[in-house]
Design goal:
The protein is of the alpha/beta class. The chain has 2 domains: 17-98, Orthogonal Bundle (434 Repressor (Amino-terminal Domain)), CATH 1.10.260; 103-274, 3-Layer(aba) Sandwich (Rossmann fold). Helices cover 59% and strands 9% of the residues. The protein has helices at 21-39, 44-51, 55-62, 70-79, 84-89, 91-95, 97-102, 116-127, 134-142, 146-172, 188-197, 207-216, 229-244, 258-274, and strands at 104-109, 131-133, 175-179, 199-204, 249-252. The protein has a 5-stranded parallel β-sheet with strand order 2-3-1-4-5, sandwiched between helices. The longest helix has 27 residues, at 146-172. The two termini are 37 Å apart.
Length: 276
């Protein structure tokens, strides 16, 4: 018997994205519970009543922060009409009803400069499916440029158009690559809809990569007259990382060329979505 085989010698593993194995497991479990609940048209309150698990605890579980007991998790699984082992393993999540609802809809999320537009276009071309920018759909729906929507209706008005545009894209496409604005995570309901109907992929990048890519696009606004720009970018990433981490998959594009990042992205799609 080796040291690794002996009881008490297990150490938490680290995932490629830097998360501890236990943390990644809880996040994945939370996503499965949330997705299976939504597939069945259950509100969190109704699932709470059915399972006997408090609504607050369900919210923590779905957010990936609730370390639930096996007994309570069994009650949730039974209330969802599932076997406990399927909920824990994720087999039903990627090969059952949830996968059929998401189909081959792919959404790229992440902060500005992550490469959502360029990589999204390349991915759609490689897969032979349409590429859609959600902001373009918002402009078509409203008849106004995005900047004008914010000027006239504020962020709340923009979020309403965003929700309507997302619903329209969902109803129109079974196979599509969708690039969404980085702030979509600010609206819980819209982000939940995105997670429920699309295979979401978080395009991660370092703050320096984000800034350099935005500048390379010819937009110098983040740097002009703002010496604290990088500090603010770090703060924004810190605030949104937990929400972006709720995406079904992640691809780190830091330091990668366009071709290398696209290859990583295609690999994730082929391994986890097209083969499901």
């Amino acid at each position: 018997m080796t040291m690794l085989d002996q009881p008490g010698t297990h150490k938490p593993r680290t995932q490629p994205d830097g998360r501890r194995d236990s943390e990644a497991f809880l996040i994945g479990l939370g996503m499965r519970v949330r997705d299976e609940r939504k597939i069945r048209g259950l509100s969190r309150r109704l699932l709470s009543e059915m399972s006997g698990v408090s609504e607050r605890y369900l919210a923590q579980l779905e957010a990936g922060t609730g370390n639930i007991s096996i007994v309570l998790l069994r009650d949730i699984a039974l209330s969802l009409g599932m076997k406990l082992k399927d909920l824990v393993s994720g087999e039903a999540h990627f090969r059952g009803e949830t996968a059929s609802v998401r189909g081959e809809r792919i959404a790229l999320v992440g902060l500005r400069g992550a490469g959502k537009s360029t990589l999204g276009f390349g991915l759609a071309r490689a897969l032979g499916i349409p590429f859609v920018e959600l902001n373009d759909e918002i402009e078509k729906l409203s008849g106004l440029p995005v900047a004008e929507i914010f000027n006239l209706y504020g962020e709340d008005g923009y979020r309403r158009f965003e929700a309507d545009a997302l619903e329209a894209v969902t109803n129109r496409h079974v196979r599509v690559v969708l690039a969404v604005a980085g702030g979509i995570v600010a609206d819980g309901d819209v982000y939940e809809a995105l997670l429920g109907h699309f295979n979401t992929i978080w395009l991660k990048a370092s703050p320096e990569d984000h800034m350099n890519r935005v500048r390379a696009q010819g937009d110098l606004r983040p740097m002009q007259g703002n010496p604290a720009a990088m500090r603010q970018l770090h703060k924004l990433l810190d605030e949104r990382n937990a929400d972006y981490a709720r995406a079904h998959f992640s691809v780190d594009t830091s330091g990668s060329t366009h071709d290398v990042a696209l290859e990583k992205l295609v690999c994730v799609i082929q391994r986890h979505i097209l083969s499901a």
